[in-house]
Give the backbone structure.
Amino acid sequence: HATEAVWAGEKAYRVHGASQVPVVNSVAYNYDDLDHWYQVAIGEEDGHIYGRNTNPTVASFEDKIKQMEGAEAATSFSTGMAAISNTLHTFLRPGDRVVSIKDTYGGTNKIFTEFLPKLDIEIELCETGNHAAMENEIKKGCRLIHLETPTNPTVKITDIERIAELAREQDALLVVDNTFATPILQNPLSLGADLVIHSATKFLGGHADALGGVLCGRKDLVEQVFHYREINGATMDPNAAYLMIRGMKTLDLRVWKQTENAGRLAEYLSGHPAVAEVFYPGLEDHPNHEIAKKQMKGFGSMFSFSLHGGMDAVKEVLPRLEFANRAANLGAVETTVGPARTTSHVESTPEERAELGIAEGLIRYSAGIESFDDLKQDLENALQALNVSNAQS
Ligand code: PLP
């Protein structure tokens, strides 16, 4: 997708011979011809009416990601959570049943455990990676299946193709959050998913300076979610759309460099005496390594690890890293680290985290595009602060 990342979705939106897509900071659009205005307003002719509905810069971003995911259509949102919640609210009705996994991103998990049950929607959250258990739940009947693979932060893997087959049989919609893999490493639609979601805030933008979300898939489905969003108003800002377009031009370069860094660092940490556990789908001892190998082109730039000595050790090590932002974000050009309890799963209670196997001292590491040698040395220096022989005893 390297060429699409640079070129897709741009030419139709350029003006005045400019080589870049403009930011159209206009809330509304002027029509001198009232009949034409009416025809555009009722959707009979192409054009833009009002910024909550559509905007040319936002449309260019949607066009680019649509082509990269191999989708018929795409629509965008103010954040990744808006993409997820708008999609769920579009398709679910009281009495419906949803099957998902326990390890979705903390915000998604809150929608499942706190908000949807209030609407009389039943949620079944399965052990992530236990395909047989998930299939049993799907066979009981469900309207929608929501997957995230790899998951945040323990990078667990679900076989998209396998679940898609059953989803089709059961006439259930399969939605996949592809934020961690990006369209460079995984295309859920080609594996049988109906809809794919990204928090564009992360890798698509890639520079930790703009929020956004996007949904790609079949036109008839995406149009329904677009309609919900244009009324409910979780619209992407044109300035954010511009930053997404600019960021995506280097998505292929960034993701491969980050993936290489993550793979080598995960391996290095696996052999470090201060490290208790490393979670990375590229490691051969990862429980679903083979599935990751089959459905992903690379294993991604996210991993997590824990230290002997738990949270106390984490408090010693993380502040010593020179080349890392300690921040609640991921997917940026800068390496970004943080304890899962403060970042992805801050919304969960300690009991809920324990239930998910997220130790209070689990560190989420989002590898940036820095040189591997510097990142490795940085970790080595920081880990030296621990008295490893004590910690191991
Ligand atoms: N999905 C995943 C996998 C995430 O990591 C996040 C992170 O925040 C989201 C969705 C939500 O995205 P946003 O923060 O843009 O709302």
Summary: Residues 251-270 form the longest helix (20 residues). Residues 133 and 201 are 32 Å apart (CA to CA). The mean pLDDT is 96.
